[in-house]
Amino acid sequence: MKFEFVAIFLVLMLLSSCSQSIEYDNIQNKDGLYFDKSTGKFLDGKFESVTLRPYSRETVIKQEFKNGLPTGEWEEWNGDELIHHGEYIQENDLAIRIKKMTNSKRVNLNLWKEADFAMLSIELVQPAHADSSTLEKVAIVTEKEFKDKYVFSTIIFDSINNSTTERRIFEYEIR
């Protein structure tokens, strides 16, 4: 009986750590929620997406989702070279402040690196206020809140409306 329990536990651990494979072209983003175009279902669990590009090595993106929302750590590889890696961080107090300042439906915070450059992406889902003045205020609040907790030199704002994303970049010298 004890052996059966251990065997079942090990199988469940193995299954939970496995990544599901999905073609990059089948990943659809609508209002900041990700789903599989071929099934219409929200992405849920760990996924690995492989893209073959002409004149390039394959690009592999490894990411986890929960009910269509990106969560946890992620990586993007080009062949055997790690290009980007990061983590969707849970900072609920700051996310609520940003949500109120921009009147967004939801806010995702993504702390990531490209080589030695650390960046914070603030993903604003359906923001009512994403003008330069508002984003500058959000950047100042974010810098004050995070400067002792996280290392980054750039804040990137992604405004997500339906299936389109508008990107604005603010460069900061973090003191």
UniProtKB/TrEMBL annotation:
Q: Which UniProt keywords apply?
A: Signal
Q: Which domain of life is it from?
A: Bacteria
The leader peptide range reads 1-21
Report what the protein is called.
Answer: Lipoprotein
Q: Which organism is it from?
A: Pontibacter populi
> What lineage does UniProt assign to this protein's organism?
Bacteria, Pseudomonadati, Bacteroidota, Cytophagia, Cytophagales
